[in-house]
Fold this protein.
Amino acid sequence: MAKIYTRTGDDGTTALANGKRVKKTADIIAVFGSLDELNAFLGFAAEALCAKNELQNLLKHIYQIQKDLFELGGKLASGNKFTLDPEKVARFEAEIDAMTEKLPVAKSFILPGGGEISARLHIARTVCRRAERETFKLFATDILAETVGIYLNRLSDWLYVAARYVAFVTNVEELTFKTG
């Protein structure tokens, strides 16, 4: 049986897929951490969706996003240049539009909540925003930031709309914030 621990990281470094060792505090490790956390929160939301027959299509989308995030992490870890398929962003936009068509117009800010599943998606959205910020910080001088940043930006939009959509489909009232 292979052991999960190697002790090679006990010095505060970790290995990328290309074999290069970097400090665990490196910007790229922060991106990996946020992508991993985002993936975990998507899994948390997916578990709650499993019991909702009317939301199985959304569940399939989340599983695909989780696979995309693993692919993205692997490509980042390899250290090679790459671009994401622009069709992935177009897919988000089409799904956002389809869900939005069914939703009432938001006339004020929506507070995170709207039931357990929606709240889980809102958490994933905030982690996605952090991953986006960290990605742009890491690749401030690299065109890769634009591609990955656009993907994560659109994903956070998708998560916001998906959270609203879940509240709508499950008939849970969204809480709103009105200024003044």
Q: What stands out?
A: DSSP finds five helices and four strands in the chain. The helical segments are 27-49, 56-78, 86-102, 116-138, 144-169. The chain has one domain: 23-177. The two ends are 62 Å apart (CA to CA).
